[in-house]
Design brief:
single chain, alpha/beta, Rossmann fold, 2 domains, 6-stranded parallel beta sheet, UDP_glucos_trans, glycosyltransferase, DUF1205 domain-containing protein, Glycosyltransferase_28
Length: 378
């Protein structure tokens, strides 16, 4: 079969789809993965054939509406207009991607289209070709619907297809462990999380625990450079310096260099999270979906510092499960972070619940098993 994977505009979207795409290719299916032009190297870097679905720079797609009007972006990520803005630029990415994907389909017609949670071109292309589309989410995000205002931005495409909304998928594939999945999440085919990252050459310190010290991982993922996330990382590192733990900070090189100037004792850089995580006693992060799942698979307790409203609910569920502590933006003072770090490192119940969650992840169906459900939807 021919399977077209349509990834959203961030590396995490690509990494979330990669295990199923790789399983399909290993099983002998023909596979392509499309994404925005700027992310194609991420796809090829994990060994998958890539398609560039856009030509317009992503900065322009974010900044300019289809009418030519400039976007005014609120600084507050919780502001209702910021949420609508996010949906609009996802819609614009989908509209431009659809043009290129039609050209691809004219020469290479897919039997099934698998889209990430931000990739609405998958649904529109599948409807146009009269083939099934499968939605592949990551963690508890976006299992219940479409981003606000994405459909507004896609009105020309929807009208052309005779639709008033994006149709639901033939199958929803979700890698969120059942115990931390929202009760109202849409029914889904479960899939085991397999960590995928852009890799570097592993050094011995990355896969061995330090002797006589605890290791704490602090990361903001690909969003670490954002002011709020960067300041939280700084605050956390300052608090941890008093606790005597070894500190590892997976971060983009420019962010890592800034942090090393202030905290010369840390190990910081863009090293593979899946290699380092099993050696850690605790991870502190922004409640990113794949970072959280990597910690869950590794049985590592988490301090969750979510900035965006959309991830606060999933962070709450992990905390209620007992594998994490969550601090909201108005709670994340230096004193509160220090207290939470001490609690997570001294109370063994968090590590116990983290190991329980790891066993649950390990029991979920592997991508090779889920592949049958995907191909049978065609």
């Amino acid at each position: 079969m021919r399977l077209l994977f349509v990834a959203g505009p961030t590396p995490s979207n690509i990494f979330a789809l990669a295990p199923l795409a790789t399983a399909a290719r290993d099983a002998g299916h023909q596979v392509f993965m499309s994404t925005i032009r700027e992310r194609t190297s991420v796809v090829t870097g994990i060994g998958l054939p890539a398609l560039a679905a856009t030509t317009t720079p992503i900065a322009d797609l974010k900044a300019t509406r289809r009418s030519g009007e400039r976007e005014v972006v609120p600084d507050d990520v919780d502001h209702p207009e910021f949420i609508r803005y996010t949906g609009r630029w996802f819609g614009r990415v989908a509209a431009e991607s659809l043009v290129r994907l039609r050209e691809v389909a004219a020469a290479w017609r897919p039997d099934t289209v698998i889209g990430g949670p931000h990739a609405y071109a998958a649904a529109l292309l599948a409807h146009e070709l009269s083939v099934p589309w499968v939605r592949h989410t990551w963690t508890a995000l976006d299992t219940n619907g479409i981003h606000l205002c994405s459909e507004d931005e896609l009105q020309p495409e929807l009208r052309r297809l005779g639709l008033d909304r994006i149709e639901p998928p033939a199958l929803l594939v979700d890698n969120c462990p059942p115990s931390i999945r929202p009760a109202d999440a849409a029914p889904a085919q479960q899939i085991r999380y397999i960590p995928v990252n852009s890799q570097t050459v592993s050094e011995p310190w990355m896969y061995t625990r330090p002797e006589g010290r605890r290791r704490v991982c602090v990361t903001g993922g690909s969003m670490a450079a954002l002011d709020n996330n960067f300041e939280l990382i700084r605050t956390t590192l300052a608090a941890l310096a008093e606790l005597g733990a070894e500190l590892v900070v997976p971060a983009p090189d420019d962010v890592a260099a800034r942090l090393r100037e202030e905290f010369p004792q840390i190990r910081a850089g863009w090293f593979p999270l899946d290699v380092v995580m099993p050696t850690c006693d605790l991870v502190v992060h922004h409640a990113g979906g794949l970072t959280g799942l990597t910690a869950a698979l590794g049985g590592v307790p988490q301090l969750l510092l979510p900035q965006e409203a959309k991830v606060r609910e999933s962070a709450r569920l992990v905390a209620e499960y007992g594998a994490a502590v969550r601090l909201l933006p108005d709670e994340a003072t230096g004193e509160a972070i220090t207290q939470a770090l001490k609690e997570l490192l001294t109370d063994p119940s968090y590590a116990g619940r983290a190991r329980d969650l790891a066993r649950e992840v390990e029991s979920m169906p592997l991508p090779t098993e889920v592949l049958d459900a995907v191909t049978s939807s065609a």
